[in-house]
Write a structure and sequence with these properties.
Blueprint: E1 4-8, H1 13-24, E2 31-36, E3 44-47, E4 50-53, E5 55-56, E6 67-70, H2 74-86, E7 90-93, E8 122-124, H3 128-143, E9 146-155, H4 162-176, E10 195-196, H5 208-221, E11 227-234, E12 241-249, H6 255-263, E13 268-270, H7 282-285, E14 291-298, E15 307-314, H8 318-331
Parallel strand pairs: 1-2, 1-6, 2-5, 6-7, 7-8, 9-11, 13-14
Antiparallel strand pairs: 3-4, 9-12, 10-11, 12-15, 14-15
Helix pairs in contact: 1-8, 3-5, 3-8
Length: about 325
């Protein structure tokens, strides 16, 4: 069977990262089509050294398409992913549209690759912060069940798209030049500042990003018993999210055990040099595939030995989005 691949939202930040990942991983296909809104239709994208014309996304775009990688926002996914699936296309969707749909697998290949088999035409890519967290947390949970996770995020501008990255750069220049800064993409000035994640706050005081980390993790771990709480913050970093994670295990776990498990875990690289005070940084995780893990230590507030603290950093556009989606496609 020929493999016709479509990339939906090919001109966006994650869409562009899709292309880089597909090329770097030598993903095999017979034909590739780049789809986007009418605004971007007609533009030229260079992929694998050849120019490709961007085609407008329509209800007929998926005839003969075997695989579609979606990264064009929730409203586009809600409309077009079911149309694609009905046409026989397998959709890997990067939006939040189907993540909590019980009929749609939510997959991180290092965590629950077997769930891919249950798809009915659509597979969901988790939220970027959730992906980066579960890659190192899952191998620990497999060895010793986790009872509670407390996570605080340090999320880069890239999580709000390419225009937000440009806005951070522009704001930084303006602040240094003594100019007035007027936010356009993000709700507050990000340059030389940080603020609570710019997603909607619910009645319980948690924002949507925090809720995603709770519900998506439970779905992929197939466990509603694990207790999770999150505080998500936007920080003035162009690319790559970082997270502080406090874990409570069901039984005592040593720092040595955690290091050994993480050293052998797929998609994880331990960066934990206490002597040189060198630990995970977004500067070093940017453009990389691995989630960097460090600051691994026993939680002194849990004297029974069941607590571990660690700090992680991972590229939101790669493992947090495009790479994970391509890895799902590879599983297929």
């Amino acid at each position: 069977m020929s493999r016709h691949v479509a990339v939906v939202g090919a001109t966006g930040a994650v869409g562009q990262e899709f292309l880089r990942v597909l090329e770097q991983r030598k993903f095999t296909y017979d034909r590739i089509t780049f789809l986007a809104s009418s605004r971007s239709a007609g533009k030229t994208i260079t992929f694998q050294g050849r120019p490709h014309t961007v085609v407008e996304l329509t209800e007929k775009s998926f005839e003969g398409v075997d695989l579609a990688l979606f990264s064009a926002g929730g409203s586009i996914s809600k409309k077009f992913a079911p149309i694609a699936a009905a046409a026989g296309t397998v959709v890997v969707d990067n939006s939040s549209a189907f993540r909590m749909d019980p009929q749609v697998p939510l997959v991180v290949p290092e965590v629950n690759p077997e769930d891919v088999k249950a798809h009915k035409g659509i597979i969901a890519n988790p939220n970027c912060s959730t992906i980066i967290m579960v890659v190192p947390v899952w191998p620990l949970h497999r060895v010793c069940p986790i009872q509670r996770l407390v996570v605080s995020t340090y999320q880069a501008a890239s999580g709000a798209g390419y225009q937000a990255m440009l806005e951070l750069e522009e704001q930084s220049r303006d602040v240094l030049a003594g100019k007035t800064v007027t936010p356009k993409i993000l709700p507050h000035r990000l340059a030389f500042n940080l603020f609570s994640h710019n997603s909607k706050i619910g009645d319980n005081g948690y924002n949507e990003e925090e809720v995603k980390m709770v519900t998506e993790t439970r779905k992929m771990f197939h466990s509603d018993a694990i207790q999770i709480t999150a505080t998500c913050v936007r920080v003035p970093v162009p690319r790559a999210h970082s997270e502080s994670i406090n874990i409570t295990f069901a039984k005592p776990v040593s720092e040595k055990q955690v290091r050994e498990i993480l050293a052998a875990a797929p998609g994880v690289r331990v960066v934990d040099d206490r002597e040189k005070n060198h630990f995970p940084m977004p500067l070093e995780s940017s453009n990389g595939d691995d989630v960097l893990v460090g600051r691994i230590r026993q939680d002194i507030s849990q004297p029974d030995g069941r607590g571990i603290e660690m700090f992680i950093s991972g590229d939101q556009l790669r493992k947090g989005a495009a790479l994970n989606a391509v890895q799902i496609a590879e599983l297929l």
